[in-house]
Amino acid sequence: MSEAVTSAAASPSPKGVPATTATPSQQARRERMLTAALALASRGGYDEVQMREVAEQAGVALGTLYRYFPSKVHLLASALARHLSGLREAVLPQPTGFEDPATRVLAMMNRMVDELSRDRLVAEALIQAMTLASATIGTEIDDVDEAMIGLIGVAAFGPDHVIDERDKLITNIIGKVFLSDLRYWLGDRMTLDGVRASLADTVTVVLAGQQALSR
After folding, report:
1. Among 19-23, 63-67, 92-96, 166-170, which stretch is predicted with the lowest mean pLDDT?
2. How many domains is the chain built from?
3. Half-sphere exposure of 125 toward its Cβ, with a 13 Å CA cutoff?
């Protein structure tokens, strides 16, 4: 039985320690665990991330790691959410000269492609975790969704924009294409240029449709 499966069975709780309610010491511990997971992923992708080794590198007991992240999928989904949240600062302020929302969103999406493609093994681990995530990984997937919604909302409408249902719909469509295209890239069935071209088509069509509906 794989560690990804046994970790869920060994977990004392189906949910980990939420980042939003963690104390400073808990947050620091959580960050060490996420950093250790990504370091291992950089060595060998998804399979290289073993919970026992993550705990050792983070300097915590294995039971403590499971209390924060009940499985490897929880752990890597949280790492992706952290990565996306960190990109928010990278897209602020918006690139000058880009007046069209679609152009700004595409610039941000291309930045995400650049960031993820810098380490293919880490990208493979993060995307694999998202692929394996089920309804039981709700909190972590919600964090990823919220980070994506925030990124696209900021890119399209500025930092003061209040997220609404329109943003969720836009992000859902673009995000699904983004995830699917990255899987194709990781499987050597699409080049990075192909990923960028697909995203350009998707962003243009989705935002053009949104603007038409809002008139």
Report:
1. 92-96
2. 1
3. 27
